[in-house]
Design a protein that fits this description.
The chain is α+β, with helices and mostly antiparallel strands. 37% of the residues lie in helices and 19% in strands. It has five helices and six strands, in the order αββαααββαββ. The protein has helices spanning 6-22, 51-64, 69-78, 80-86, 122-135, and strands at residues 28-33, 38-42, 102-107, 110-118, 141-143, 151-153. The strands form two sheets. The protein has a four-stranded antiparallel beta sheet with strand order 2-1-4-3. A two-stranded antiparallel ribbon has the order 5-6. Strand 5 (141-143) and strand 6 form a beta hairpin. Helix 1 crosses helix 5. The two termini are 15 Å apart. Mean pLDDT is 87; it is low at 147-151 and 160-168.
């Protein structure tokens, strides 16, 4: 069983901040373990005050729902009452945010955590998360909800299929 270390979380956060700076954004980044518990959260200079909490909720969602937030959007839209009640459950530590910038961290077929990015547009948050995880050797394929069918893929925008970084 793999786990996400503090060093790996900091590597993800550093890469996300570098990518965000390259597009002129100040984003907060949160990395949680598979249970949704925070490993590291960082808000850089210039990031809006609420972004660390948003990033943490996005990371939490990706970890405990075991799917990227973007994959959960259609489910949330079709069952809004169910999703609104998830955040009210006694064991829910954070709101469930089915949105971009919420990406499950998966390595060697195992879900080991969640990544949340907040501070750019929805598309920018998603792009940063996907590019960073792919560049560090994490997997971006997840089985569709309801079983059956091929895995859904969060499509990276650059360098697809090419190793672009070191393993975490």
């Amino acid at each position: 069983m793999s786990s996400l270390t503090l060093d790996a979380a900091e590597e993800i956060i550093d890469a996300a901040h570098k990518r965000a700076q390259a597009i002129g954004k100040a984003v907060s980044v949160a990395v949680v373990d598979a249970g949704g518990f925070p490993i590291a959260i960082r808000r850089p200079d210039g990031a809006r005050p609420l972004t660390p909490d948003i990033a943490r909720a996005k990371a939490y969602t990706a970890a405990i729902m075991q799917r990227p937030g973007k994959m959960l959007k259609k489910w949330q839209e079709s069952q809004p009452v169910f999703f609104s009640q998830l955040s009210q459950l006694p064991g829910a530590a954070m709101p469930i945010m089915a949105t971009e910038g919420s990406v499950t961290i998966k390595k060697d077929g195992e879900i080991i955590g969640g990544l949340g990015i907040a501070g750019g547009t929805a598309d920018e948050d998603q792009q940063i998360a996907e590019e960073v995880l792919q560049s560090l050797g994490y997997e971006l394929e997840f089985a569709a909800w309801g079983g059956g069918g091929p895995p859904a893929r969060a499509k990276p925008r650059v360098g697809e299929g090419k190793p672009a970084g070191k393993d975490a």
